[in-house]
Amino acid sequence: MTRFPILAVVWTAILVLGFAVVIGLGAPPATVTDDLDAAMHPATPVTEEAARASAATIVRLNYPELAGFDPVVRNRTDFGIEHWVIEYVDAEAATPTGVRISITTEKGNVEVTTFP
What we know:
A hairpin with a 6-residue loop joins strand 2 and strand 3 (about 95-105). A 4-stranded antiparallel β-sheet has the order 1-2-3-4, covered by helices on one side. It has one domain (about 30-115): Nuclear Transport Factor 2, Chain: A (Roll), CATH 3.10.450. The chain is about 40% helix and about 25% strand. Helix 2 (about 30-40) packs across helix 3. The chain contains 3 helices and 4 strands. It is of the alpha+beta class.
């Protein structure tokens, strides 16, 4: 008696079960690098909510000491380019320190600068 049909059925069942497990698990959770990359490249056109979310992620990951402060958000147009400017400032320090994040509305370019 041949064992091939039994082995083929068992092997097929194992393969199907394996694929079902992989599909059931879904995508892996986002890493810190993935979160930062998404924050540095927001979807365009950038809305105020998207700019706030990107800035909050950048500050949370790169400047955690400023994450507890409320940001100041402004919509500006400089040289015909509209952008969101989000600032996190620790004004209570001996020398005020902070981070300024500028995100262009049209292209989603992100520029991060710190100040003493």
